[in-house]
Amino acid sequence: YLLFRVALAAVGMLDVFIIVYALRELSFDRTFFGVYVIAFCAALAVGIPLARSLGARRGGRAVLQASTWLKLIAPLLLLTIPFLRDSSDVAGRVSGDRFYLWMLVVCFASLGLSLAFQGAGNFQYLNEIAPGTNRAGYFATANSVLMFATLFPLLGAWIVEGWDFQRLFGVAAAVALLAVLLSGILVDNRIVASRPNTAARLGRVSYR
Question: pLDDT tens for residues 34-69?
């Protein structure tokens, strides 16, 4: 679980540089600042009940997996922007960079949804896998490890300064794909927890 969470947190190296990319590489309209904030907050608000509903039906593992797929959307979209701008077919249909600025709205919306699912999934998954006698220890260990996630934006800055934004987007997409793969090995503790109850029911049937 911790390895998966570190990989998912590492994708966050991208988040703070989306606006920097828009300011440096695109003809940025400052009114989009508000649009991005609204998109992120609205997606976060919508995502919280959706995450809780999914968690109630499928468990914390499914919520974390959904968060990972949503996190992957932003770097993949950002990777496509330079190719679309260089395409003569797209250039003939799109004037200026406004279309690409709206693509960034989708990036912020996906990040808001991912954060909602991530917050709900972390709490529920740890509650599912942690024994009741040591649940506080599990949460403390996870929080201690994830404190270092605040350093990942520094890694993003180093990549941008040493190479370019495209390298940052590529690294973030690769790490997000790694997180997707690691989410597949998370334990579905609902199945494990249900086995004693199943065994007990079978035992009562056999006695009858």
Answer: 899 999 999 999 999 999 999 999 888 999 999 999
User: What's the whole-model pTM score?
Assistant: 0.82
Distance CA 201, CA 194 (A): 11
DSSP 59-84: -HHHHHHHHHHHHHHHHHHHHHHHHH
Tokens encoding 86: 């260089």
**Cα separation values, 182 from 5, 18, 64, 108, 185, Å:** 9, 25, 11, 24, 6
Contact 42, 179 (CB under 8 A): no
How far is the C-alpha of 115 from the C-alpha of 11, rounded, in Å? Answer: 12
- Distance of alpha carbon 98 from alpha carbon 96, whole angstroms: 6
Residue whose entry in the numeric block shows the structure tokens 């995502």? 47
Backbone angles phi, psi at 27, to 5 degrees: -80, 85
Calculate the alpha carbon distances from 166 to 8, 36, 37, 79, 90 in Å. Answer: 19, 21, 24, 7, 19
